[in-house]
Specification:
Length: about 160
């Protein structure tokens, strides 16, 4: 049984970009397609010699009658329940936002292990955001660039224990 990794975090931090990189193909259907609502996508991920199931979460972007807090809570609870490990992505260029803090707060209380990932760090960018990320109380963030494929060996090392 491959282990399961859920990618969580606020909109626009790069969750789907990381999902596509780990699954290794550009999926024809992207989350931003107008009118297409996709709350979650699952795929087979490869990272070094690791194979695992990866889950991309979405759906906080769309207008809804349910509150943002309610949707975030539901999505995060589902990720916690099904995953062996959660990747909490934040945008190192944007720094820590209130919504990042809310995700961290929920994940810190969960029994599911969490790996904090600071995305958009290509070429050493996002230094101050990476420092801010320590405020989330989830340890040192893994610097990554999902778009440029940088930091994948550190991500490998953080996931390897769950294989
Ligand atoms: P999601 O809403 O969390 O799924 O985020 P997306 O994967 O849709 O990415 C949101 C935006 O951030 C897009 O414009 C991406 O091209 C951009 N992005 C994602 N990863 C990176 C990265 O590593 N570096 C930079 N500079 N931009 C990124
Ligand atoms: Mg997305």
């Amino acid at each position: 049984m491959p282990f399961k990794v859920a990618i969580v975090g606020r909109p626009n931090v790069g969750k789907s970009t990381l999902f596509n990189r780990l699954v290794g193909k550009k999926l024809a259907l992207v989350d931003d397609t107008p009118g297409v609502t996709r709350d979650r996508r699952e795929g087979e991920a490869h990272l070094g010699d690791l194979t695992f199931t990866v889950v991309d979460t979405a759906g906080l972007e769309e207008a809804s009658t349910e509150s943002l807090e309610g949707r975030m809570r539901r999505q995060t609870d589902a990720a916690i329940a099904e995953a062996d490990v959660c990747l909490l992505l934040m945008d190192a260029r944007a720094g820590v936002t209130p919504l990042d803090k809310r995700f961290a707060q929920i994940l810190r209380k969960s029994p599911t292990p969490v790996v904090l990932v600071a995305n958009k760090c290509e070429g050493g960018a996002g230094e101050s955001g990476r420092m801010e990320a320590f405020e989330l109380g989830l340890g040192a963030p893994i610097p990554l660039s999902a778009e440029h494929g940088e930091g994948l060996s550190a991500l490998y090392q953080s996931l390897q224990p769950y294989a």
